């Protein structure tokens, strides 16, 4: 309420108040929620002035009252979206700065004057920050509904965040709605129910007005900001469905089963008429869906509730059918608008707003942090996992090196490579070991980090080998952007690194995500051979392919003809070679078994005889001898069997061993009973001249999908291999039946078989068509995701009976279909850790065939377009791009599937080569897994091609070279022409380098870096042209007499006329001949008219853009000279003068960057703080610790590099700079300390999982 000057008394009666209600421009849902609050305030007799940018009809449709006053104005901004499903937090913050921070003073003055003019008693802000400060300045208390905006701000521009926080710090209390995020800043909170709008029409009335009958299923597409070019198609909806489209533009053309709604349609009435809603998460849509019990399908974080690909490609059917089957579960209140308007007496006695906001800012950092970095958050916030649903930061202190090492040794066996004592690699191996437990637990799957870990666990076969590579980021000490101009650079690999785990699998063993499996099935293979058999078999199906049956590899069995059964009393002369022996004719020395309940049996038409009290089981076969011969078969299990699930249960070594175990004894009893039950058992005497053929027990364990034991299996298998019996059997059968030789096999078990000189091939096409015909789906369309993952079927009590056998047969046929397709897919599957903290999808998958155009790889341009289709998965170009580069440059062809897990601790956007570390680690791991021997230098050059051509970023090669070729505690010295490593320079023990992050995001793909690079190449082209003209003029003036010319001068001009790298031009030559002839800047169009091209293969000149030329061309020449001097000084005697000179060179480099336009406020402030610390009069010359600093990498933000003494006091001064920067900007800089080996020095690890330990 309005506060009287000099007192705590209020000036108005609570029966009639004047409200000023500020509404944010952040989404339409805010305005529709405010309508309900305002409506109830007016009904209570209050006047409400609404400040909003929303259309008038939003309020006037629901409220017709003289107490409502609308003022069209927006004092903040909505979110800037990178695409229809992705919020660009940095751009949103920048837009807010332009809207409310820069004009802040004038806004405050205007709003204070307006609030006083309407005599406002109370200000409500939803959630406009500056309105809160204006209310305070006008002497008015205020309430606000949403505090989330404070914590939803980006990682950067913390001064803007603090400005928002300062505005919010005047809060009295928070009115909190259901679904709120953690808001520890506002401990004074009043909870109210959902704020929802009321219906005007019933379901029947709304459908009648729309002209839609009750028999039609109706879905609302409530999707603001639909993707440009997104065309809705008729096949997106199942038969019998219609879709109501909200917010469609006037020129949008819709298919006949989609209906465009008017822009001012009253959404609650449409909700009343509908069966479900599909769209983006928004508080308004969610509130009304909950309140009116409408199922809501929405996209969330790259593929959980609804996969992004399914949304945009129209695979809606399974989600719609799932949605309408759900039962409503929300039973909470829905009268939040009324409760908020009524209010209650409240007096705050808690801490000041500024003190409370400390927690909110800390929470903001916690929610936005990058994995692997320490945010210096308070200890009391380090374990906020339960509330925040995010991973905690660094390991706690009690997790010692020994404990990590112990976990590692228990989890993995290292078959190749060395950890080299790197703690981060140990931690990465620990995280790999934990994936099994995550995959099995099934708990907390709603947490984003749990979902990504479950995805990662699902792509690895833990019984197979995994290859791990590591590549660090880099700190640009000196050299920087001069790399593309051929400069000498000195780079240090940092401690933070990227780890990549790779596993290659035969496609038949590849574990694919469900949507990837569906996509592969939908593609089909037609008549293309799917399995090539390189050796010939007499049978088209090998024994090992029999479903679930173990195979005795001791001797192949050739079965005799079926026996005619005879009793001992009536011997029969059989046309078959087989006769039956009585038990009495079988004599053995084996001891009797304890249990005599085993019956005799005949299996598959063969007669078996069981001797009561004896363990031998025999199969009788003819012999030329007149005397009976006894079987001497062993009862041991087969020597080998097909590989199957690993079991801790040991198989019996012989018959006696099996009987000693109840499970195996039961299994054998079941086998014998089955033989007897099938009626294949009868006893007979063994005639003279016949010999028994022994059998053996074969034991195996059948496992469930999760690895647990399903049952013990025992099978009785006959021994022997008499090939002569086959023609005799055919001869016998020909006498009894009509028999015909069908020739070579063409079909077997529904699978087509074809022969060629290359081998035997099978094709499933006919089998698939028959299956589709049988199920009535021959005319159905393909679908990437035919069934919702995780959907459990339940019995329909009221449904009509169905043919159960039909569905059982279908399941069996589908299993057979997939199991007989070992090359079902050659896929790449990737998981990126930490993606839930950014605007990218955590997973990516593709078919390697997507990289092929016929017999050749696709072009780099096509690959660039492929990865650019989905902004949330654009990051995959850095990882999957290495595969295409290996195919293009080295001719590698990948025959196996690839699974990859990427985990990077190198912060993004800091100018420390996060992208290069990902590329180098990915290529190193893939090369190791495929046996490719690539030198570190060549690997770095290949990775540069990934970034230049697949990603499309115009970077040089020094980042990849340092990540690949660097060594710990050494500077990599490299001449970038294009990439010649000239050695490693040891960092003297008395010198230390630090990296300090400014908090301003650096982007190698940004316009500033690219324009400076273009300017440098324009300058080189012009210098070459000037040198050519001077050379021609000199030759012309000498009348062709070479003797009259200065030979040295001619050679210099000739070299400069063909200049390949700017750094090869000496600074004094530049100043003497070219500096004054280069323009400060030049329009791209003008340059191209005169010179046609700037000869840079990775950048394109914008005709309408003006490029700086002189500063961009000057920088690399002088930088090359500075780096050479820096390298020489590092090897000089240790002294204060040495450090001073090194620091001065870094300062010169920094200001040369600034002259090119590559500076930033944050980096300038940090360098200034280093200078203040260096020249502080409190310290004597001998006490100085810091000597110089410069911006690094591509500039325009990112990190600075600082040089100083290697002592404790230097670290204290660095920490002081951190705190002073935080005090000035609100952002605590991240500190890069230490060094680590590059990917080449580290090599790779080849690991295999041990038996996983039991997790507590």
TrEMBL record:
<dbReference type="GO" id="GO:0005975">
    <property type="term" value="P:carbohydrate metabolic process"/>
</dbReference>
<keyword id="KW-0067">ATP-binding</keyword>
<feature type="domain" description="Reverse transcriptase Ty1/copia-type">
    <location>
        <begin position="720"/>
        <end position="788"/>
    </location>
</feature>
<keyword id="KW-0547">Nucleotide-binding</keyword>
<dbReference type="InterPro" id="IPR006204">
    <property type="entry name" value="GHMP_kinase_N_dom"/>
</dbReference>
<feature type="domain" description="GHMP kinase N-terminal">
    <location>
        <begin position="878"/>
        <end position="966"/>
    </location>
</feature>
<feature type="compositionally biased region" description="Low complexity">
    <location>
        <begin position="625"/>
        <end position="653"/>
    </location>
</feature>
<feature type="domain" description="Galactokinase N-terminal">
    <location>
        <begin position="462"/>
        <end position="504"/>
    </location>
</feature>
<protein>
    <recommendedName>
        <fullName>L-arabinokinase</fullName>
    </recommendedName>
</protein>
<dbReference type="InterPro" id="IPR036554">
    <property type="entry name" value="GHMP_kinase_C_sf"/>
</dbReference>
<dbReference type="GO" id="GO:0005524">
    <property type="term" value="F:ATP binding"/>
</dbReference>
<dbReference type="Pfam" id="PF10509">
    <property type="entry name" value="GalKase_gal_bdg"/>
</dbReference>
<dbReference type="Pfam" id="PF00288">
    <property type="entry name" value="GHMP_kinases_N"/>
</dbReference>
<dbReference type="InterPro" id="IPR053205">
    <property type="entry name" value="GHMP_kinase_L-arabinokinase"/>
</dbReference>
<dbReference type="InterPro" id="IPR013103">
    <property type="entry name" value="RVT_2"/>
</dbReference>
<dbReference type="InterPro" id="IPR019539">
    <property type="entry name" value="GalKase_N"/>
</dbReference>
<dbReference type="Pfam" id="PF07727">
    <property type="entry name" value="RVT_2"/>
</dbReference>
<feature type="region of interest" description="Disordered">
    <location>
        <begin position="619"/>
        <end position="653"/>
    </location>
</feature>
<dbReference type="InterPro" id="IPR020568">
    <property type="entry name" value="Ribosomal_Su5_D2-typ_SF"/>
</dbReference>
<dbReference type="InterPro" id="IPR014721">
    <property type="entry name" value="Ribsml_uS5_D2-typ_fold_subgr"/>
</dbReference>
